[in-house]
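hi! just following up on the protien thing from before. the input was this:
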Amino acid sequence: MKIKSAEFLVSAPNLDAAPRSSFPEIAFIGRSNVGKSSLINLLTGHRDLAKVSATPGKTVLMNFFRINGNWLLVDLPGYGYAKVAKAERAGFNEAVNDYLERRENLRLLFVLIDSRLAPQAIDLEFIEWIYQLKIDYALVFTKTDKQSPTRTRAAVATFMATLAKRGYPSPPFFQSSIITKEGRSQLLAAIDAAIQT
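and the predicted 3d structure came back as:
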């Protein structure tokens, strides 16, 4: 797949404010500060499409983008830490819950995992929840350029083994680096396959 156009549509605080569309949707989510905005910009080839910040929890709305005029990319708020008021945090998490449970156009959810870290409880709990929802998902291990390939492979193996111990089948997974562009073509191919279904 080649990204020929990427157009921002709306930032939605809840599902009612989301675009009414029949286009297939591909969503991205992960722990705050996992590199989600940078990955979206890498995939689309638009450096400033998704706002990148050094402050964790910057994305607090669901951001919708129309790609190539025929599918929507959805940038979901990061789960976990967010520097917002407790009431606001509960509100945007509720919006994500509604989106994942009720959005019929969702074809694939990419869950981003920091490849430098041991398996985090919050990531494992989120995966357990979406597995129960029967959502098609894939893992993206980010920031691989910040450590050796050997350490990345070991981290991925540990994470997948942890999922297996919890009784979950291995989902598709990818490795990604903003610096080297590792994983870009594979992720675009996965998106292309998902929007055709």
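The two ends are 15 Å apart (CA to CA).
Residues 6-196 form a domain with the Rossmann fold fold (CATH 3.40.50.300).
cheers
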